[in-house]
Write a structure and sequence with these properties.
This protein has 739 residues and is α+β, with helices and mostly antiparallel strands. The chain has 27 helices and 18 strands. Helix 9 packs parallel to helix 19, helix 17 packs across helix 20 and helix 25 runs antiparallel to helix 26. The chain binds adenosine-5'-diphosphate and magnesium ion.
């Protein structure tokens, strides 16, 4: 094939030699967590008293003192050295997406002219990375230049190659969060406290409530050689041009299809690496678009799940290169086919089980189930604009609202049974409540609930926040995103709803005690049902079981008062709404100052991404596309001239008709591209002078980004007429079908 001669397909090399994967012969259960300093290893490498203390720190968040830290560090170093480790690093999640690390070796002068390996509790617990170039939205420049990283003992350290990796939070000297992990930990604490208190209405024994996250990572693979020939993919993560392939996903033949051999080998090695790092990989399959795949682990506690997702994304990139692939995590690498997301399956559980699971055994459990469903919806309803902001980015903006991903409106699908349950509670009037609350404390006769377990078949794929049996799936999260962003907003919103709920219930209990005196009814449960009825009515606008892609829904959602904004920089403003600031501050998750600083970073990042795309598009247009189109045009011109020399004028005119049309089309299209690129450059110059990150981002969104489409349109038309052997970029059909 001509194309394979034009570009070196790395895959060819992989086809020739059989792929060997470093597959240990053991079962996954035997090498799971091999590279993690988990409880087993702690037990082996730490003195018993230190081990007990560490478990207390991990499970109950107690403080870790210096002596214990020293002992833990010593045990860690021993384990690490037995595994050939020479370096350690504090690993953190700056606001740039991705992770950051700076490696230090264990060696120190021994004071006798030699070297020894050393690793103290101090080095484990805290470091000052020279991190002045990480975005901070100005927090550090205004307050204190230094930022430091501090160990998060709830996420275990692990080994990558020769380095001991220590998960940390990254905060400024004055305590502001400069990363995702610090506010996430605070949000998880807030939801734990609030949910535990609400659980006590039903079961005073509950000690804590854990937030769970099961992410489903979608991604594309492209051949490394073809990737290298696409400067747009290389520099922006997506293709800025490229005509549709004649065949793409219209046959629906990729989804759940057989996984290509070369990809299978990649997946296998990736899973082994991930399992060794303690990531409980479970599911892998092809996705809807050609070359698109998904990997999902078993859900874990949210903080750990977030770390594991960040880790997986970097391991993926590394392993892909070993197999001659590049992994694309961008939400929309190719126009015209599906983009990639990362469903965040979320639930709360106690030491006694998942809270969003309808057990249907006792009325109390059923009421608890209803409480957590309704209060989750309350949080999502009240902060629907903020939740959208939490998943929004320049890259995810391409995917939302298109007919493949959730619409840019947050709503929730509950399915028939749960909807009926809520309707039932809502419609019951006060007397009914007395009736179905029963005589012996509480008896709620709702036959629908047990069936929930069986029937979650009526799934609504267009819903951005769907209940699926024992969890909610937040589907709007982008494939490239740090899940922490969505998890901070969601857990905070639910925590706040639960706090409000408890306040209202507590305030009503005395009133019901009076009313129900001598009846044997439980005032507490009556108060709960009373508040739930009210809340079910309040949050009703968030419930939507219809087609989220339809235009009617957009109109209907606006009528219901849901946030329907589609401009990315404007959506970020939701972080600075009074309601958002109040929520984050009251739960101690983030201060107004932190929120403001973070928004500066978000707007700046947005602008930079569009700016880079604009420059790449301009360069490619002028240096790749126009010269090639012009050179093909010259070929055609020469051909036209020669036809005139060999054929009589009339005949030549007739035979030249098609070429003349092409010549004209090329001339027109290249001239248009040239003008539009000039306009793009001019618009950028204007935007760059704008003061203030918000206004600048708005200019990039409103005036610059829309110009990409018009330029691309012309280029994609040229791609169809210019000689294939001259076209300078691998085409969609080459990029999208793995060989
Ligand atoms: P699907 O593609 O059908 O949505 P998958 O099996 O691919 O489902 O992924 C579902 C994800 O949800 C997995 O990570 C799974 O562990 C996770 N999950 C299952 N139950 C819960 C729960 N109660 N809380 C959080 N995540 C859950
Ligand atoms: Mg899912």
């Amino acid at each position: 094939m001509a194309n394979e001669l034009r570009f070196q397909v790395v895959g060819e090399a992989f086809k020739k030699k059989p792929l060997s994967v470093v597959a240990p012969n053991e079962k996954p259960s035997e090498y799971f967590g091999l590279k993690v300093f988990n409880r087993q290893k702690m037990y082996k490498y730490l003195p018993k008293s230190v081990y007990d203390k560490m478990i207390d720190v991990i499970e109950n968040g107690t403080r870790l003192d210096r002596a214990v830290a020293d002992a833990v560090a010593a045990g860690m170093m021993q384990w690490a050295q037995e595994n050939g480790v020479t370096h350690y690093t504090h690993w953190f999640q700056p606001l740039t997406e991705g992770t950051a690390e700076k490696h230090d070796s264990f060696i120190e002068h021994d004071g006798k002219g030699g070297m020894i390996e050393e690793f103290s509790g101090k080095l484990l617990v805290q470091q000052e990375p020279d991190a002045s170039s990480f975005p901070s939205g100005g927090i550090r420049s205004t307050f204190e230049a230094r930022g430091y990283s501090a160990w998060d003992p709830t996420s275990p350290v692990f080994i990558m190659d020769d380095t001991l990796i220590i998960p940390t939070v990254f905060i400024s000297y004055s305590g502001e969060a400069l990363d995702y992990k610090a506010p996430l930990l605070r949000a998880l604490k807030a939801v734990n406290v609030a949910a535990t208190e609400v659980c006590h209405y039903f079961d005073p024994e509950v000690k804590k409530v854990v937030s769970n996250l099961g992410w489903e990572q979608e991604y594309f693979l492209v051949d490394e050689g073809l990737y290298a020939a696409r400067p747009d993919l290389l520099l922006t993560g997506r293709t800025l041009m490229g005509h549709d392939s004649a065949k793409n996903q219209q046959m629906d033949d990729h989804y759940f299809g057989a996984i290509p051999e070369r990809v299978q080998a990649f997946m296998k090695e990736l899973e082994i690496e991930a399992l060794e790092l303690g990531i409980p990989c479970k599911t892998r399959h092809n996705e809807v678009a050609p070359n698109q795949f998904e990997l999902a682990p078993i859900f874990e506690e949210t903080n750990l799940a977030v770390d594991h997702n960040m880790l997986l994304m970097s391991v993926m990139k590394k392993v892909a290169r070993k197999h001659g692939f590049r992994v694309l995590l961008h939400e929309k690498p190719f126009a015209g086919i599906n983009g990639s997301g990362k469903h965040n399956n979320w639930s709360l559980s106690t030491d006694t089980g998942v809270l969003l699971h309808a057990p249907g055994k006792t009325a109390e459990q059923n009421l608890r189930f209803a409480t957590f469903i309704v209060e989750t919806l309350m949080g999502v309803y009240k902060h629907n604009g903020l939740l959208k902001a939490s998943i929004m980015s320049a890259t995810n903006a391409h995917r939302l609202g298109a007919n493949e991903a959730p619409p840019a409106i947050i709503s929730s699908f509950l399915g028939k049974q749960v909807s009926e349950l809520l309707d039932h509670i809502e419609k019951a009037d006060k007397d009914d409540i007395l009736a179905f609350a029963g005589k012996q404390g509480m008896k709620m006769d709702i036959p629908e609930i047990p069936e929930l377990l069986i029937d979650n078949t009526d799934r609504n794929r267009t819903s951005p926040f769907a209940f699926t049996g024992n969890r909610f799936e937040f589907r709007a999260v982008g494939s490239e995103a740090n899940c922490a962003s969505a998890m901070i907003a969601l857990n905070s919103a639910v925590a706040e709803a639960l706090v409000e709920f408890k306040k209202k219930v507590d305030a009503r209990i005395p009133e019901f005690e009076k009313k129900l005196a001598g009846t044997g009814h439980s005032a507490k449960f009556h108060a709960i049902i009373d508040v739930l009825r009210e809340d079910i009515k309040t949050c009703k606008p968030i419930r939507f079981d219809g087609n989220g892609y339809s235009d009617e829904w957009k109109a209907e959602a606006a009528k219901r008062g849901l946030d329907t904004e589609t401009s990315c920089p404007k959506i970020f403003e939701r972080y600075l709404d009074d309601a958002s600031i109040k929520m984050f501050e009251s739960l101690n998750v983030m201060t107004k100052k932190e929120l403001e600083a973070r928004n500066e970073v978000k707007w700046e990042t947005y602008t930079k991404k569009i700016q880079i795309e604009a420059r790449v598009l301009g360069d490619l247009s002028m240096n790749h596309i126009i010269p090639v189109a012009t050179s093909y045009q010259s070929q055609l011109l020469r051909n036209v001239e020669r036809m005139c020399t060999v054929f009589p004028a009339e005949k030549a005119k007739e035979l030249n008709a098609r070429n003349l049309k092409l010549i004209e089309e090329i001339a027109q299209r290249t001239a248009t591209i040239e003008t539009q690129v000039e306009e793009l450059v001019a618009a950028r110059k204007v935007a760059n002078k704008i003061e203030g990150e918000f206004k600048k981002a708005i200019a990039y969104h409103d005036t610059i980004a829309p110009m990409f489409d018009t330029i691309r349109y012309q280029i994609d038309k040229l791609e169809l007429i210019v000689d294939d052997s001259l076209w300078p970029l691998p085409k969609y059909r080459e990029l999208l079908f793995i060989r």
